[in-house]
Design goal:
Order of helices and strands of chain B: HEHEHEHEHHHHEEEHEHEHHHHEE
Strand order of the largest sheet of chain A: 5-6-7-9-8
Strand content of chain A: 35-45%
Shape of chain A: globular
Shape of chain B: globular
Oligomer: heterodimer
CATH class of the largest domain in chain B: Alpha Beta
Helix content of chain B: 25-40%
Largest sheet of chain A: 5 strands, mixed, barrel
CATH architecture of the domain at 57-140 in chain A: Beta Barrel
Largest interface: A-B, 48 and 48 residues
Distance between the termini of chain A: 21 Å
CATH superfamily of the largest domain in chain B: Thiolase/Chalcone synthase
CATH topology of the largest domain in chain B: Peroxisomal Thiolase, Chain A, domain 1
Order of helices and strands of chain A: EEEEEEEEE
Structural class of chain B: alpha/beta
Number of helices of chain A: 0
Number of domains of chain B: 2
Strand content of chain B: 15-25%
Number of helices of chain B: 14
Number of strands of chain B: 11
Chain lengths: ~140, ~400
């Protein structure tokens, strides 16, 4: 039996298949924000205070990538033994924004390249009380893990 | 043009003295390092502490709790003497902001002589955020996702490799260059001349960066005595002058991936800007000096690869040309434009509120011809550049 699935960070992404990040968009100037911005627009040329929630593009291109060879400190919850994982910064074309995330399990830096097409998936970040806490990760487009 | 010249001149202040407590992992209270550096700087300046009219302390968040507000803490340790006091926090740029506060006080006629001090004792192990479930704090979010400081350094490094053909050997060459410079610096923490084999055999931290490509955190202290040009002239001192201090914020949309953020600004509506390039640009504009006028530069090599980014951000070359500049030998002492003659963060490790001041100290020693075996011959103009968390960064131009 598989674990129940819950979001590691509530309200930052849909739990749909496929998932999407939830950002916001200023109704005055059209600037996107992730994480969501709900009170005031940070574009200096805009005094907007009204926003709509938007689902961000779920595909983008790699801006850069690396991995974590050392176990990060808390609040990261490390598996025992620690397993290194890859990290990618992915540029979303419509939003003109770069979003960081772990890379899906099974891929390391040797599988990645600046400019490569990536898509958003959900995978466990860690487990707690019998539940899988899932987070967004970037996965090379059209590749099975 | 005379009027313009006079106006520019009036914006300068003199550096009468500089001093440091050597960098290391000494494990003592930061106040000790600050007092040591301050007394060295005062001695170097020939100024009595009682004659200092303004004391400006550079703080870290760690030092920023009651009783440890940097400016007042150093003033009390040196002995309360009624000076006006200031404390500046600006992450890695705290020292430059404290310097800017002192300069402003002098230029506005509020004082003739000011002392600027920054010192830090770094905790052991990782710098980790406060506990709890706090997704409103980007620093908490990125650590929760396993994204540490070297992650960001490695993202910049890998991008250079894929876009500009940088190699790990280039990053190692920066480390070896800075290690050779720092070996001649008595204030540096690491004074060992490394070999490429040693660097490449160190543990991988964040591919492509290994342990010896990434800077450590250190204890240390640095201090600077500033005065008006008039005060320096009365003393017959031909002191180096601060020609510009830039502490600008980014401009929206800031398009570079920045620690500790999980996403950049969106440039969809506002268009994009480079923060790090703007730091030096503001300093050049303020001083009427350009990169072609530089004798040397001290830049923030949190990782060896980031020194290459700075070559471009401070205008030593165009984007994608930093590896060529490095390979030509231009940025070594003896080359056309030596970078990190002090040994840089590679040899110091980062003592956050002291680091930007330490960069200025090195320029002052170089411009006075007092840098010993690491002297850049004929140094006349130098720039510092650094950048840290929360939209803080700085560039300082010092000239003779």
């Amino acid at each position: 039996m598989s674990n129940a699935v819950v979001a590691a960070i509530d309200g930052w992404y849909t739990l749909d298949d496929p998932p999407q990040l939830i950002g916001s968009r200023c109704l005055s100037c059209g600037t996107y924000f992730f994480p969501r911005q709900g009170s005031f627009c940070r574009n200096p040329a805009c005094a907007g205070t009204s926003f709509e929630d938007v689902k961000l593009s779920r595909t983008g291109r790699i801006w850069s990538y690396t991995n974590a060879c050392y176990q990060p400190p808390p609040p990261f919850v490390a598996p025992d033994p620690f397993r290194p994982f890859a990290i990618a910064a992915v540029e979303l074309a419509a939003e003109r924004m770069i979003v960081l995330g772990q890379v899906a399990a099974g891929f390391d830096v040797g599988d990645l390249r600046v400019g490569m097409d990536m898509e958003l998936v959900l995978e466990p970040l860690h487990s707690e009380d019998g539940k899988d806490k899932v987070i967004w990760k970037w996965k090379p487009m059209g590749r099975a893990s | 043009m005379e009027a313009d010249g006079a106006r520019i001149l009036s914006r300068e202040v003199a550096v009468l003295g500089v001093g440091m407590h050597p960098w290391g992992k000494w494990g003592r209270n930061f106040v000790e390092y600050g007092v040591h550096a301050a007394r060295k700087a005062l001695e170097d300046a020939g100024v009595a502490w009682q004659d200092v009219q303004f004391i400006s302390g550079a703080a870290t968040m760690r030092c920023g709790y009651p009783g440890y507000v940097a400016g007042a803490t150093f003033a009390q340790a040196l002995g309360w003497q009624g000076a006006q006091v200031n404390t500046s926090y600006a992450a890695c740029a705290s020292g430059s902001q404290a310097l800017a506060a002192a300069r402003a006080q002098i230029l506005s006629g509020g004082c003739d002589v000011a002392l600027v001090v920054g010192a830090d004792t770094t905790p052991k192990g990782f710098l980790a955020p406060a506990a709890g479930y706090r997704p409103e704090d980007p620093d908490w979010v990125r650590f929760y996702m396993g994204i540490t400081n070297p992650t960001y350094f490695a993202l910049y490094a890998r991008r250079r490799m894929d876009l500009y053909g940088a190699s790990v050997d280039d990053f190692t060459a920066v480390k070896l260059k800075n290690a050779a410079h720092g070996a001649e610096n008595p204030n540096a923490r690491y004074r060992k001349r490394f070999t490429a084999e040693e660097v490449n055999a160190s543990a991988m931290v964040a591919d492509p960066l290994r342990l010896l490509h990434v800077c450590a955190t250190s204890d240390g202290g640095a201090a600077i005595v500033l005065s008006s040009l008039e005060y320096a002239r009365r003393r017959g001192s031909a002191a180096p002058r601060i020609a510009a201090i830039s502490t600008v914020t980014p401009r929206f949309a800031s398009t570079e991936v920045e620690m500790p953020d999980i996403a950049t600004d969106s440039a969809a509506a506002a268009g994009g800007h480079s923060f790090r390039a703007s730091l030096a640009a503001k300093a050049y504009e303020e001083a009427g000096i350009g990169p072609e006028d530089l004798s040397l530069a001290e830049v923030y090599d949190l990782a060896a690869s980031m020194e290459l980014d700075w070559y471009e951000y401070i205008g030593l070359c165009r984007s994608g040309e930093a590896e060529g500049l490095l390979r030509s030998g231009a940025t070594r002492i003896g080359g056309r434009i030596p970078v990190n003659a002090s040994g840089g963060l590679a040899c110091f490790g980062e003592a956050v509120p002291a680091q930007a001041l330490a960069q200025v100290c090195e320029l002052v020693w170089q411009l006075r011809g007092q840098a010993g075996a690491r002297q850049v011959q004929g140094a006349r103009v130098g720039i510092t550049a650094n950048q840290g968390l929360f939209g803080h960064g700085s560039a300082v131009l010092v000239k003779r």
